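Quick one from the shared queue. A colleague (R.T.) flagged Sortase as missing a structural entry in our internal table.

Convert sequence to structure tokens.
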Amino acid sequence: MPIPFILGAVAAGAGLVGAKKGYEAHQKNKQAGEMNDRAQRMLDRSKRQANRARKSANDALEALGKTKLNTMQGPLTDFVRAFEQLHHIDLDDTLTPEDLRNLKGCRESLSAMKEQSSLAGDMASGLAQGAVAGGLLALGAYGGAMTFGAASTGAAIAGLSGAAATNATLAFLGGGSLAAGGLGIAGGTAILGGIVAGPALAILGLTMDSKANENLETARSNLAYARQIREELHTVRDLCEAIENMGNLYSNLLGNLGQLLCAVVQNLQQLIRQSGTDFRRYTREEKTVVAEAMAVAKAVSTVINTPILTKNGALNEGCKRIADDAQTFLAAH
């Protein structure tokens, strides 16, 4: 065969191979692009779901914080003022067994309630001045004792302290709004799925050359990474939903307990107006009025001080038991 014909055949064969390679590269790049698109959609959808759950949990805890603050400022403070007027509260045999249980440790309980009442005034002042950023969120997530440092009567609390200041979960729920622990918490947002910064996919430009295989491998890695992040964000979403549910439960419980406390405080105030402040002179029925008021106030104080979150930012398992106890108490009253 003449040499020109041979060269022509070789060139034709090379052209076919080149066309085949080009087609394969195109298909691989197309597959890589589809994988990247799927990975990005997966991430975007998971981030939206987790962010919605985060906002709902934040709203639930802030609502609980507001309910706690209103209860401490209102009926709990009224109870403290009324009960402090009583003198000579002796646990003697004129009391029924139930009244004895309700009045046991009443002075210690009253002292704790006074601190909550004082905290409410300080916190309200701080919120009004804008000095306690994220205060309602922190109060909803924790009891007053865990949320803030020791309250000094009349002085606005300038910032968060203790667990509330360092908890990455709380900062995440508030979107970084906490003055003492927002996005400045090292790794806080990263631990919780990186929703604020957002995980980035290494989506490369797709070219019709030898990088087609590399592009396909990168896309496969992106898809695997997106699936991993999706699972992490599902965990975050589930935690947020659990926090939201518990926050709503506590808000409802505290609202009902607060109404009950208002009623028993009115009875106590009426008793003091009619029979004075010397507990020794009260009839058994009148002593029962005092004991019932203390029992309700204790239930309110316990719910206020029960943290929804642990110091590590997990859902406090004990808060469900406290909620069950409060529901049982309400059912009996």
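The CA atoms of residues 24 and 220 lie 17 Å apart.
Residues 5-18, 150-158, 176-198 have pLDDT under 50 and may be disordered.
Added to the table.
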